[in-house]
DNA sequence: TTTACTTTGGG
DNA sequence: CCAAAGTAA
């Protein structure tokens, strides 16, 4: 998998094109595959392949498809400014990419690596097919700070604990400085034979039409590399002041909001890393923001850690890391799940988060943990149900982060200790949304409720309650917690490795 | 990346 | 009485 030097096709004419196959790297800067293609001196063909079947079965939910539409349009426009064209095909990449390479008489196909199980399988097969056909296939590292196989224990195993993994990763050196965007792309003439399979972005039908539920997404986001760069600079320009603490506050604009940009590669984690380091260490603040910087870098690290765990164990997309959880007596109550999805649980912080997700395709990180704990603990719903909902509704939905973090919250993942993570949604809300600003923003029914009871409206004065149309709690917190701990204890009685 | 319950010590 | 600190799960 690490970069391979393939037999050079010396017999290829000098004007045989290079195909840059874009996937989760919709950007021009710090794009090693694109830079390699430009540096080769050959004419360049830029290609994106959408596989609806693959997308349906694997992690490209409806909200992420909406983002992809905007991301492709932005990349198309950015490439056009460089003098190049983004060719958009629709179908099975395994069949299309080798065929299109042959039709174009391509000397080389290049891409930036992906690490999810299905992506790896597809890319390995395509690489073999291309090589067999005498076309050079070359892949690059661009989507992570540290590729999964580069961080290993002394015994050569994968790490299972973040802090140990992070120490080893950082000891392997600083991530490479980002590459500049090419100044100009020498585009190849579009092969006539590509007409048949290149359909254009509209034809992918990535955007919802009837009903058009994406209004909230359009208000909240503008996909694209330029917008990602703006978000990054807006975030780091303040020197990350207070990030370490304020990042937990959903009522404050303290997080980077870069998750969808990283998911689709409008920005690379290396760019985020180096921009943050430069802003803090280069700034006048001296060592002041060091703690905030470390916190932000470690959040980038968590993203890589999830990738490396899934790389080591692809079955974690659907199997419990701790197999004793296979016996968990999930209730999976359909009405509970529905109330959770729609933000009608009667717990304001949970409902606010779920409504923010539905409306904007994104949820604050702290609130993600609260709603996930509530679903898997208090409602005793299988984490896979929550994972599927997040996958379909988050614009930043990423297989590795999604499954690893859901397993972590549910207690069946690495670094698990289930009883540590029964979040009390009322206490969490009081601590991290002390004025109720976040809750009132997303649950407008509670706008007139005083702060003293906004996170637990059933405790309000009856006169206030009577004026507020807001559901009663669907589960008792104490009872739900006790039920979850009892279910977990039932598993613990069975033999397992550690506590 | 927690909670809930107990103990302690100051008022 | 209450907050802070300790601790078990």
From TrEMBL:
InterPro entries: Crypto/Photolyase_FAD-like_sf, Crypto/Photolyase_N_sf, Cryptochr/Photolyase_FAD-bd, Cryptochrome/DNA_photolyase_1, DNA_photolyase_1_CS_C, DNA_photolyase_N, Rossmann-like_a/b/a_fold. Belongs to the DNA photolyase family. It holds the Pfam family DNA_photolyase. It comes from Novacetimonas hansenii. The keyword S-adenosyl-L-methionine does not apply. This is Deoxyribodipyrimidine photo-lyase. Its cofactor is (6R)-5,10-methylene-5,6,7,8-tetrahydrofolate; FAD. It comes from the Bacteria. Residues 16-145 form the Photolyase/cryptochrome alpha/beta domain. SUPFAM superfamilies: Cryptochrome/photolyase FAD-binding domain, Cryptochrome/photolyase, N-terminal domain. The keyword Transcription regulation does not apply. Keywords: Chromophore, FAD, Flavoprotein. Signal peptide: none annotated.
